[in-house]
Every structure is written in structure tokens, then in C-alpha cells.
Amino acid sequence: MSYLNHAQSRLITLMHDIAFGDISTGPEDSTVHIGNQFVYCAAGFICAVIAAIYDLAVRRIPNYLTGAGLVVGLIIHFSLDGWRGALTSGSAALIAGVIFFIFFMAGGMGGGDVKLMAAVACLSGLQNLAYLLILTSLAGGVMAVLMALMHGSLKHTIGNVFSLANHHLHKGLAPHPNLNVDNNSTLRLPYGVAIAVGSFLTFYLQRVQN
Is the overall model pTM greater than 0.85, yes or no? Predict the structure, then answer.
């Protein structure tokens, strides 16, 4: 009787693992997992590169591209990792979208950048999200410094950073009256390029680690 109870318990556990994608039978499953992460990062990178080209050419990131990225991301994760994969993919998009929406509310970036980041995060997946966010932010910072140097306005740019920090310290997320993305007289960073660089570095790290 105890043997039957044990077998029943094991069967219930196995069904749970299959339903939620937790089943693992050995090295082959690890290889499949690594292969899936490679696909996710590659898809995110491709989407980001296409968006970066648009951002450089017309300074806009089309909604159909970011919308397609979100849909394809959910489909790819569902097809490779089931409902759990789709859920984590959607979670990655939500987290990245909320974080970048804060910068949008503060006047620091356009809505297209927010939607692109959500789409790329959806494609890249939750497991790669931390790398994607950190590396994209670093890429954006480096690009901003390089642009300031190219225009001979590094000192002025540093002063603007302190002005922005002081403004948001007292005004919260309200955009600065002059230093915001809608002011064409300020240096505007094509952030789609920064997201593409961050996506590439995430893809590269995925390859190196695995």
C-alpha cells in the first residue's frame, strides 16, 4: 500500500513538472535549455537592430515593429517552454516596460524606446533581463558621453545632469521644462541604438557563459 502511495505521489509530481515545464531528465534537457536561451537572445537582438536602423534613419521606432516583437516573443517562448515560458516572457516585458516608463514620465526618453525595450525583453526572456537592462543602461551612458565629446559640450552636459537631478529631487517625475526629449535644441540620443548594443552584449554573454 505504501508503495502505491509513493507511486501516486511520484505520478502527481511528474504531471506537475510536465505541466509547468520543470521536468528534467539529464544533460539533454540542459542542452535544450541553453539552446532556447540562445534563440531568445538572438531574436531580441534582431528586433533591436531593426529598430535601431529606424531610429537612426527617421528618429522613430514604428509601433508595428514593437507590437510584432511582443507577439513573436510570447509565441516563441510558448512554443519552446510552454505556458510557463510565455508567462515569464510577459513578465520580462512588463518589468522592462515599467522601468523605462518611469524615464518616459520624467521626460528622459520617447514612448517608442519604452515599447522597444518591452518588446526586446519579451523576446530575450526573464532569465536574460538583468543583463539586458544593465548593459543597455551602460551603453546609453557611454553613447551619451561620446555624443557630448563629439559636440564639444561635455562640461555643459555634466551640468545638465546635475540640473536634472536637482529638478527631479524637488519635482518628482515631472519633466524638466527645458531638458526633456521634446526639446529639439538639446542633444538627443537615439536610444534604439543603445538597446541594440545592450541586446548584442546580452547575446554575446549568453554565448560565452554557455
Answer: no
